C-alpha cells in the first residue's frame, strides 16, 4: 500500500545506516564524459560483489527497529521455508541522455547515470547440482541460489506529465534531472499520464512510432463495427475511423457475443450499459472514454460470431485491424474476460509499492522485479494474443500492479518517470513484450532477413496455446497478412510462397502428431467446402503432450536454393505454380544434374484428376527408400544412422523426397508415407548431395503431396 502520510522518516539499523548507496541514490544523476555505449559507472563503487546485510535470522531479528530490514524480511517471508542463506545489497546503474532541446551545463558530458540498489538473497543451496532442465521446466522449479528479492530506486524530485499545458517543459539540466527517477503508482490509473504518453507519440515520434503501412494495407477498409464509448453501443465504423483495440483472453468467462439475432439491439444507443458485458471490455470502454477516445474495437462484439462469412473475412484482416489501431489495450494480468483492467476502477489493483522517506528524498521499491514479468500470464501464453501484440504499433499493457506504454520509439511505465530522456540503456530493466515492436519492421526485408523473421515469428507463435486446433491458421492470419503485404508475397496454408522450399523444411523438437483438422474454405463458384489442412503445413501438426508444446523450427539456417518447382491446387481447383524467389546459383551443377532431370514433365489437370483436393501439392522430384532413425515423432530423421540398431529408439525403412538444397550442397528431404497414391509428410531429414546421388534405388517421380 502507499506509504502513510506521517512526519517521521525511515529508521535504519547500524548495518543499513552504513550503506552509503542509500544516500548516493538520493543525489541527482551522475554526469559521465565517456563515449556511448558506456559499460562502466562514472564513479568507483564497492558494490559489484555486494555488501553483506547478514543472514536470514539476523535480518528478521532487526525488522522491528529498521524499516529497510522490515522490507527485506517481508520479501524473505515469501521464500520457501526450508531455505536459509544470507542477503547482500548490490548496485546497478543505467544511463540516458537528456532531450536535445535541454541545455547541458558542461558540453563535455555525453550522458548521465542513475544508480539503483538491489537486495540479493544467496541461499545455502546455491552450489548444489540440480540436474539439467528443459526450457519449459525452468519456471516450475524453486528459485535457488542468488536471486533478487528487493529493488530500490530514488523518487524523482518533480514528476511532470509530458504535454501537460499547465507545466512548463524543463529547459535546463537541473530542471530535467529533477523529473527523472521513480514515481508513486496510485491506486487508480492516472489517465492524464496515459494521454501524455499518447501525446508524446503523436507530436514527437514521427513516422518512427507509427510508420506508413504498405499500400495494400492502407487501402483496406476499417473494421465493420466499432463500439462508440460515448453512446455505449455498436456503430458502423466511420470513414478514417480513429479507434483503440483490445487484446484479452476469453478464458472461462461467459462472453457476451455479437450474433445475427442481437445485432439491432447492440446498435441501440445505451444498449451496452444494461447488457452483461465482461468486466475487461467494460473497463476498456471506461478507459477509452477517460482518455478522450471515442471508438473501441473488441472481437467478441465487433464481429458477428455466427456469421461465418463475416467471421472469416475479419479474421483474415486481423493484421490491418491491429496495425491501424491508434493503440492496443493489453489485458495482460487476467485469466478471463471478466478479470477487468486493474486500476481502472478504484480498489481493483493491490498496492505493492513501499517507500523509505528521508530528509533529502525518498526511495521507492520497484514493482517490476523481473524483466518481462508478464510472460507467464495466460494472456502471454495464448496463441490469439501473439499477433495482436506483434502487429500493434503502440500498446498499453495492464499488469496486475501497474501500466506500461510501449511504442516503436519509447517504453514507459507508471513507476518510472523517464519521459524526458532519450537513448535509455537499461542493463537489467525491460518492459513487457517490448521485443515485439522490434521484431517486425514495416519496410520490405532482404531475403535473409525475411527468412529469419518468419522463422522467429512462427517458432514463437507455436509455443502458445490454442483452445481449438481449428484456429491454428486463423490465429496466425494477421502475421501472414502483414508479411505478404510487406514482401509482395502469397501465403499457402501458413507458408510464404517466396520462401516455400525453406518453409517446407520445418520440423519439431519434441514429439508431434497429425491433428487431422478440417477447415472451411470458399471454393469455386463461392461454394463452401471443408478440407483437411495438408500434411506439409505446420498447422496440420500438434504436440502429443499438451503441457509442453514442441519447439518448431521454420527451416534450418543457411541459404536455401529452390530446386523443385511446386504447384498447388488452389481454392478454385486450379493448379497454380508457387513462385519462389529466384537464385543466381554459381555452384557447379554436375552433381545436381545426376539426380535431377531437367526435361519438362507434364503435370495432371486437377479438374480431371480424382486426386485434386484443395491444398494438394504436385511436383516432380527425386525419391529414394532409405534406412533411417526417427528422433522425434513427426520430426527429425537421421539417414543411414551409424552405430548399433539398439542405440536408436526406432529404425525404419522410409521413403524420402527432395524438397530443396542448401548452398553447402546439403539436400533437404521430407519423409513420406503413402495412402491411396497420395504422399503425406511424416518428418524431415537432410543429407549430403553426394551421398544422395549414390542411393541405388533413386527415381525421378511425380509426387502428389496431401
Question: What this model shows, in words?
Answer:
The protein contains 21 helices and 35 strands. It is globular. With 706 residues, it is of the alpha+beta class. The longest helix has 15 residues, at 447-461. A hairpin with a 6-residue loop joins strand 30 (617-630) and strand 31 (637-639). Mean pLDDT is 82; it is low at 1-6, 42-46, 126-144 and 427-437. The strands form eight sheets. Strands 27, 28, 29, 30, 31, 32, 33, 34 and 35 form a nine-stranded antiparallel β-sheet that branches. 40% of the residues are buried.
In short:
Strands 27, 28, 29, 30, 31, 32, 33, 34 and 35 form a 9-stranded antiparallel sheet that branches. Strands 1, 2, 3, 4, 5, 12, 13 and 18 form an 8-stranded antiparallel sheet that branches. Strands 8-7-10-9-11-14-15-16 form an 8-stranded mixed sheet, with helices on both faces.
Amino acid at each position: 500500500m502507499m506509504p502513510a502520510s506521517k512526519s517521521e522518516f525511515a529508521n535504519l539499523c547500524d548495518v543499513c545506516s552504513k550503506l552509503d548507496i542509500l544516500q548516493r541514490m538520493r543525489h541527482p544523476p551522475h554526469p559521465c564524459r565517456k563515449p556511448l555505449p558506456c559499460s562502466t559507472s562514472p564513479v568507483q563503487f564497492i558494490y559489484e560483489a555486494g555488501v553483506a546485510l547478514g543472514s536470514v535470522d539476523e535480518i528478521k531479528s532487526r525488522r522491528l527497529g529498521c524499516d529497510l530490514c522490515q522490507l527485506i524480511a517481508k520479501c524473505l517471508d515469501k521464500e520457501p521455508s526450508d531455505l536459509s542463506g544470507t542477503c547482500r545489497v548490490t548496485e546497478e546503474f543505467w544511463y540516458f541522455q537528456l532531450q536535445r532541446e535541454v541545455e547541458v551545463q558542461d558540453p563535455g558530458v555525453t550522458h548521465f547515470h542513475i544508480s539503483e540498489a538491489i537486495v540479493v538473497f544467496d541461499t545455502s543451496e546455491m552450489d548444489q547440482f540440480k540436474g539439467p532442465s528443459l526450457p519449459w521446466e525452468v519456471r516450475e522449479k524453486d528459485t535457488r541460489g542468488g536471486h533478487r528479492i528487493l529493488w530500490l530506486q530514488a523518487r524523482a524530485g518533480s514528476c511532470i506529465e509530458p504535454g501537460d499545458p499547465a507545466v512548463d517543459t524543463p529547459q535546463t539540466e537541473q530542471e530535467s534531472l529533477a523529473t527523472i527517477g521513480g514515481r508513486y503508482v496510485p491506486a487508480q490509473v492516472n489517465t492524464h499520464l496515459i494521454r501524455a504518453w499518447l501525446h508524446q507519440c503523436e507530436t514527437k515520434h514521427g513516422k518512427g512510432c507509427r510508420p506508413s503501412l504498405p499500400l495494400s494495407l492502407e487501402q483496406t477498409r476499417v473494421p465493420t463495427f466499432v463500439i462508440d464509448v460515448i453512446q455505449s453501443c455498436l456503430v458502423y465504423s466511420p470513414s478514417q475511423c480513429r479507434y483503440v483495440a483490445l487484446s484479452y483472453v476469453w478464458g472461462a468467462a461467459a462472453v457476451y457475443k455479437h450474433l445475427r439475432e442481437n445485432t439491432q439491439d447492440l446498435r441501440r444507443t445505451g444498449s451496452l450499459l444494461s447488457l452483461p458485458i465482461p468486466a475487461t471490455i467494460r473497463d476498456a470502454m471506461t478507459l477509452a472514454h477517460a482518455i478522450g477516445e471515442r471508438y473501441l474495437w473488441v472481437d467478441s462484439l465487433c464481429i458477428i460470431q455466427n456469421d461465418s462469412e463475416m467471421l472469416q473475412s475479419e479474421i483474415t484482416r486481423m493484421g490491418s485491424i491491429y496495425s491501424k489501431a491508434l493503440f492496443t489495450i493489453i489485458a495482460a494480468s487476467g485469466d478471463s474476460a471478466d478479470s477487468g483492467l486493474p486500476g481502472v476502477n478504484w480498489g481493483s489493483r493491490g498496492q505493492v509499492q513501499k517507500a523509505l522517506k528521508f530528509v533529502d528524498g525518498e526511495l521507492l521499491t520497484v514493482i517490476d522485479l523481473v524483466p518481462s514479468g508478464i510472460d507467464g500470464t495466460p494472456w502471454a501464453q495464448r496463441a490469439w494474443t501473439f499477433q495482436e501484440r506483434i502487429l500493434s504499433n503502440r500498446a498499453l499493457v495492464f499488469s496486475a500492479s501497474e501500466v506500461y506504454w510501449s511504442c516503436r520509439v519509447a517504453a514507459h511505465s507508471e513507476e518510472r518517470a523517464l519521459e524526458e530522456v532519450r537513448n535509455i540503456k537499461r542493463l537489467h530493466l525491460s518492459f513487457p513484450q517490448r521485443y515485439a515492436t522490434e521484431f517486425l519492421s514495416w519496410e520490405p526485408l532482404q531475403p535473409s532477413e525475411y527468412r529469419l523473421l518468419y522463422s522467429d515469428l512462427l517458432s514463437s507463435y507455436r509455443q502458445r496455446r490454442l483452445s481449438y486446433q481449428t484456429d491454428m491458421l486463423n490465429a496466425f492470419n494477421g502475421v501472414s497478412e502483414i508479411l505478404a503485404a510487406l514482401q509482395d508475397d502469397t501465403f499457402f496454408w501458413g507458408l510464404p510462397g517466396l520462401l516455400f522450399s525453406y518453409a517446407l523444411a520445418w520440423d519439431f523438437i519434441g514429439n508431434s502428431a497429425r491433428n487431422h483438422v478440417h477447415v472451411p474454405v470458399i471454393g469455386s463458384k463461392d461454394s463452401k467446402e471443408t478440407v483437411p489442412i495438408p500434411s506439409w503445413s505446420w498447422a496440420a501438426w500438434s504436440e502429443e503432450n499438451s503441457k509442453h508444446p514442441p519447439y518448431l523450427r521454420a527451416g534450418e539456417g543457411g541459404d536455401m536454393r529452390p530446386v523443385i518447382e511446386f504447384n498447388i491446387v488452389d481454392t478454385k481447383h486450379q493448379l497454380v505454380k508457387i513462385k519462389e524467389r529466384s537464385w543466381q546459383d554459381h555452384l557447379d551443377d554436375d552433381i545436381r544434374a545426376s539426380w535431377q532431370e531437367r526435361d519438362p514433365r507434364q503435370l495432371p489437370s486437377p479438374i480431371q484428376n480424382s486426386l485434386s483436393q484443395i491444398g494438394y501439392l504436385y511436383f516432380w522430384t527425386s525419391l529414394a527408400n532409405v534406412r533411417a532413425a526417427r528422433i522425434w515423432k513427426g520430426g527429425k530423421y537421421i539417414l543411414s544412422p551409424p552405430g548399433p540398431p539398439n542405440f536408436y529408439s526406432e529404425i525404419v525403412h522410409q521413403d524420402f523426397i527432395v524438397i530443396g538444397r542448401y548452398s553447402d550442397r546439403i539436400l533437404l528431404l521430407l519423409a513420406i508415407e503413402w495412402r491411396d497414391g497420395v504422399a503425406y509428410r511424416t518428418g524431415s531429414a537432410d543429407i549430403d548431395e553426394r551421398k544422395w546421388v549414390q542411393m541405388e534405388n533413386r527415381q525421378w517421380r511425380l509426387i502428389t503431396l496431401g
